[in-house]
Specification:
single chain, mainly alpha, 12 helices
Length: about 325
C-alpha cells in the first residue's frame, strides 16, 4: 500500500510540474522579451511588472469561440491538440530530478523511451493540418513533419554519444556516471542535441512551419480558443522537457559544485531554468532560417558533428579502458 501511495505522490508531483513549469516559462518569455525588445504591453497588465499578463492571455483564450471548419474531420481536428501535448507529460515522468527516487517512474531504457515518445508529437501537427480541410494547414503540417524527421537523427546520435560515455541507456545511470570533465568532451554533442531539440519544437530561428509570415501559422491556422492554447502550452512544455533532458544528459543533472545530494533537485531546476532562458534569448536575437537553410543545417552540419562526437567518444572510451 505504501509503495502504491509513493508512486501516486510522485506522479502527482510530475503532473503539477507539467502544469506549472510551462506556464512559468511562458510568463518569463513575456518579461524577457519585453526587456530585450522594449515591449511595453506585457509590462502593464495587473500593475507591478505586468504580473497578470499570463492571466490576461488565459482569459483571452477562454473567451474566444471554439470554431471547427465545416469541412474538417471533426474528431481528428479536436484530438490533435491533445496528441501534441501528452507526449511531453509522458517524457517528464521519466526524467530524474534528483538522486534516488526523485523521478516519476524509473525506466530502464529511459533515453530510448524519451526520444521515442517525443517523436510522437509530430502526429499532433500532421493530424491538425490534415483534419483542418485547409490546403495551407496541410502544407504547414507536412513542412513540420519534414523538419522533425530531419532533426530527429542528429538528436538521437548526440544522445547516443553520452549513453556510450556512461555505458548505460538509463537516465539516472547516465547522471550517476557523469564527471565534470565530460563537459568539454561532450560539448559538441550537447550543442547538437539542444539545437536539434529547438528545431523539433519549431522555436525561432527554426519556426518556419508555424511563422505567420510563412504559411499563416502552419498546421494551426484553423484553431481558436483553448485548442489553440493547448498547442502553445505544448510548445512551452517542450521547452521544459528539452532543457531538462539537456541538463540531465550533458550538464550533470543533480550534480552541483558543493556535492549536496539533498539539494540535487535544485541544481537540476537551476540548469533547466538557465537553458530555458537561452531558448528565449535565441528567439529575440536571431532571424529565422529559410527552409533550404534549415535542411542544409541538419544534413550537412549537425549530423556530421554528431557522428564526429560518437567517434571521439569511442576513442576516449578505448583510451580510458
Amino acid at each position: 500500500m505504501s509503495g502504491t501511495l509513493d508512486v501516486v505522490l510522485r506522479l502527482l508531483a510530475v503532473f503539477v510540474a507539467f502544469i506549472a513549469l510551462p506556464l512559468i516559462v511562458g510568463q518569463t518569455e513575456h518579461k524577457v522579451m519585453a526587456h530585450m525588445q522594449g515591449r511595453l504591453g506585457p509590462m502593464y497588465a495587473g500593475g507591478f511588472h505586468g504580473w497578470a499578463q499570463l492571466v490576461a492571455d488565459g482569459v483571452k483564450f477562454v473567451q474566444k469561440e471554439d470554431v471547427v471548419p465545416a469541412g474538417a474531420d471533426r474528431r481528428i481536428f479536436q484530438l490533435a491538440p491533445v496528441v501534441a501535448l501528452l507526449p511531453y507529460l509522458l517524457v517528464l515522468i521519466a526524467i530524474p530530478v534528483g538522486p534516488g527516487n526523485a523521478v516519476g517512474q524509473f525506466v530502464d531504457a529511459g533515453i530510448f523511451f524519451v526520444l521515442a515518445v517525443m517523436g510522437v508529437g509530430v502526429l499532433g501537427s500532421l493530424m491538425a493540418g490534415w483534419a483542418s480541410a485547409n490546403k495551407f494547414s496541410l502544407l504547414g503540417g507536412l513542412r513540420t513533419a519534414a523538419q522533425l524527421m530531419a532533426y530527429e537523427l542528429p538528436m538521437l546520435l548526440a544522445a547516443a554519444s553520452v549513453a556510450m560515455a556512461a555505458g548505460t541507456v538509463s537516465l539516472p545511470g547516465i547522471v550517476e556516471a557523469f564527471h565534470w570533465w565530460w563537459v568539454p568532451w561532450q560539448i559538441v554533442g550537447g550543442l547538437v542535441f539542444f539545437t536539434a531539440g529547438l528545431a523539433e519544437l519549431q522555436r525561432p530561428p527554426f519556426d518556419m512551419p508555424v511563422a505567420d509570415s510563412e504559411i499563416i501559422f502552419g498546421a494551426y491556422t484553423e484553431y481558436t480558443g483553448l485548442r489553440f492554447a493547448m498547442f502553445l502550452l505544448a510548445e512551452f512544455a517542450g521547452i521544459v522537457v528539452l532543457c531538462a533532458l539537456t541538463a540531465v544528459l550533458f550538464l550533470g543533472g543533480w550534480h552541483g559544485p558543493f556535492g549536496a545530494d539533498g539539494l540535487g533537485w535544485l541544481w537540476t531546476l537551476l540548469k533547466t531554468a538557465v537553458l530555458a532562458f537561452v531558448v528565449i534569448w535565441l528567439r529575440v536575437s536571431y532571424p529565422r532560417l529559410r527552409e533550404d537553410q534549415l535542411q542544409k543545417l541538419a544534413w550537412t552540419v549537425l549530423i556530421p558533428l554528431a557522428l564526429a562526437q560518437i567517434a571521439l567518444t569511442g576513442i576516449v572510451k578505448v583510451a580510458i579502458q
